[in-house]
Amino acid sequence: MRIDIISIFPEYFAPLDVSLIGKARERGILDVHLHQLRDWAHDVHRTVDDTPYGGGPGMVMKPEPWGEAIDAVLAADQDARPRIIVPTPSGVPFTQRLAMEYVAEPWLLFTPARYEGIDSRVMAEYGSRLCVDEVSIGDYVLAGGEAAVLVMVEAVGRLLPGVLGNARSAVDDSFAPGEMENLLEGPVYTKPPEWRGHEVPEILLSGHHGKIARWRRDEALRRTARNRAELLAALDPATLDKHDRRL
Ligand SMILES: COC(=O)COc1cccc(COC(=O)c2cn[nH]c2)c1
Question: Is 173 one of the annotated active-site residues of the chain?
């Protein structure tokens, strides 16, 4: 998978050199290209923003530098087209399901904005011939989209085959489509069996896999009811067996 990121703070993406994503890059599973937006701002001050038409607070990112930067990225591979992802509070929710859709894409282009956002004509220009997604990682406003890009690259990158290693499959994730979809992970434990007077739930030491699976689902349902009751409402009743309904 190829990922391109255009930003006025490319140094913000140093974390993509370490840990899981860093290793995936070393192993050639992931190919990340960073671009400094100001390289396409040709005035002496390399200006990328200006005051908003219609008035209002803050500044808007000018269309010209973005247009030239995106054109330059697209020119990197004439035979392919990237999916463009714009982090914004006004976007569709970023979910595990969307991450699974993105991991199937051969090429992603992230365009994190600063200030009040990018002149809307930029995405209109590319939306006519490419897939342009405005995506939100949550209902809050950041100073820029760079942190949102880090979140999405990690959520997508960890799903790439070979990144998590055989010990761990992303299929078992919370929110992953299927049995655990719309359920939060329950508690997890490891050695020692007793720590500062706290014991590991007996069932987990029993080796009885059927009962352990049942206990884990119960704990997932309880935690979901406590922290995200609205997700329970989204649960397909057909997937709730009589035991669940009793909870
Ligand atoms: C076309 O879209 C744009 O121009 C982007 O506009 C903005 C405006 C303000 C802040 C941001 C950065 O993203 C977030 O704050 C964000 C993403 N997810 N949750 C919060 C982006």
Answer: yes
Q: Which one from 82, 119, 158, 216 is the annotated catalytic residue?
A: 158
How many angstroms separate the alpha carbon of residue 147 from the centre of ligand 1? 10
Kindly state the tokens that stand for 36.
């400094």
The structure tokens listed for 3 are 């990922």
181: annotated active-site residue: no
Site to probe by mutation for ligand 1, drawn from 61, 114, 136, 141 as the one with most ligand atoms within 8 Å of Cβ, is 141
Kindly report whether the global pTM for this prediction surpasses the value 0.90: yes
Q: What is the pLDDT of residues 80-125, one digit of tens each?
A: 999 999 999 999 999 999 999 999 999 999 999 999 999 999 999 9
The strands making up 132-136's β-sheet, listed across from edge to edge, are 31-36, 2-7, 107-110, 83-93, 132-136
Is 116 tagged catalytic?
yes
Strands in 78-165 per DSSP E = 83-93, 107-110, 132-136
Q: What distance in angstroms lies between residue 115's CA and the mean position of ligand 1's atoms?
A: 9
DSSP run (H or E) holding 7: strand 2-7
* CA distance to 16, 45, 144, per residue, from 12 (Å): 9, 21, 11
Structural tokens at position 123: 């995405």
